[in-house]
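BUG: 3D viewer hangs when loading the predicted structure for this chain

Environment: internal workstation, default settings.
Expected: structure renders.
Actual: progress bar stalls at 90%.

Input used:
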Amino acid sequence: MATALFNHADALDHVTPQGHPERVERVEHLLHALAGLDLDRRSAPEAEEAHLRYCHPQRYIDRIRGAIPASGQVQLDADTWLSPGSLRAALRAAGAAVAAVDAVLAGEVANAFCAMRPPGHHAETETPMGFCLFGNVAIAAKHALVSHGLGRVAVVDFDVHHGNGTQDLLWDEAKTLFIGSHQMPLWPGTGNADERGAHDNVLNLPLPPNSGGAEMRAAWTPALSRLRAYQPDLLIISAGFDAHQDDPLAQLNWTVDDFRWITRALCDVAAETCGGRVVSCLEGGYDLQALSDSGKAHVEILMEAGA
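Structure tokens produced before the viewer hung:
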């Protein structure tokens, strides 16, 4: 079966200020790297407000909608900006994750990758932050539970920054398991090992600055056993590529081979537990070449796993 690639040109209409790391060129370079791959290319739909309400109250959705400028750019916090096209981009980023869940669970494709922006894993219940507006992967997880009736959904995150938003949105959700590795100390300052969720459903794997693939694999090996024992019905990945040694925003030293390793390991667990059903969503990655190379390797492993 094929691997689906969800994308939409609206991702390019979320325009951040000159010099901002989360920029239009991220998706442009990644899509160029994926251009030669035999993927089932699908248009990302806009998420419905009902999907967003799985994780965010209506007052928050209305607040984001009301903050969109008619022209220029407005700043929500030190890192997070809005332009006239930001809402459409964010709705399609969340909608891509929802549609990918639908396609994978319907058996239309083996797995899926959503090459959209803005990212989502820092958006908390009522707080946009860290370039993120809506909690894309958490929304997708809740959609799998509510609309498809799944009993267990696992969300894993290997972005270099802790997925504080995903943790917040899934903290009380007993039918999910959230596992994430990240550099610590590093913004946003959350992700200690003692943060375990309301139902012991959170597993954080903090990694020290200047560590590399060996330390990552040592941390993830027992975590993969926890994931396997959980027996998820679906695996959702927050795929950030900013742990790469060339990324300017952090100090981990992963290589492309490390992203291959973690992707293959996660796909192996998915093959054993949930029929290989994997949905992956782009998060960070701010060196354009490292993002392109690592993202392409990630998708190639998804394709191998789904073949």
